[in-house]
Amino acid sequence: LGLGNPQQALHYAQLVIDAEEIDLLPDAYRVRGEALTANGRLEDAEKTLQVPIRLAEQNEDDYLTAYAWRAIATLYRQQGKAQPSAEAQQNAIDLFHQMGLEHEVTG
């Protein structure tokens, strides 16, 4: 995904999802959701990005939860959903600050 190839990111994220490694699932679904967003498949991306938030919160993994909130904030912004985007972004900011990762707030 970071190399600008959302199709390849979708493929690799799906491989991780299929492996069902619980610790990796939140990030795999986040990557899948971001790749779908990059491909303009916003409805599918929204459904997908709900999953990593739920899984990461269940795992009490603030790190992955923050990244998932940031990803869905970006999606909501692209969809023109200002209020949900602002709320999701604030959730991400709060978690990044709690972890001392202020540099991620601008990421």
Count of distinct strands? 0
Helix content: over 70%
Gross geometry: globular
Which class best fits the helix and strand makeup?
A: mainly alpha
Mean pLDDT: 94
Q: What is the H/E order?
A: HHHHH
So what's the oligomer here?
A: single chain
- The low-confidence parts are none
Largest sheet: none
Q: Rg from C-alpha positions?
A: 13 Å
Terminal-residue CA separation: 15 Å
Characteristics:
single chain; 107 residues; mainly alpha; 5 helices; globular
Structure description:
By secondary structure, this protein is mainly α. The chain is 75% helix and 0% strand. The protein has five helices and no strands. Helix 2 (25-38) packs parallel to helix 4 (62-79). It is globular and about 30 Å long. The protein starts with 5 loop residues before the first helix and ends in a 9-residue tail after the last helix. The model has no long low-confidence stretch (mean pLDDT 94).
Describe the secondary structure blueprint for this structure.
Blueprint: H1 6-19, H2 25-38, H3 42-58, H4 62-79, H5 82-98
Helix pairs in contact: 1-2, 2-3, 2-4, 3-4, 4-5
Summarize the structure.
The protein is mainly α and 107 residues long. It has five helices and no strands.
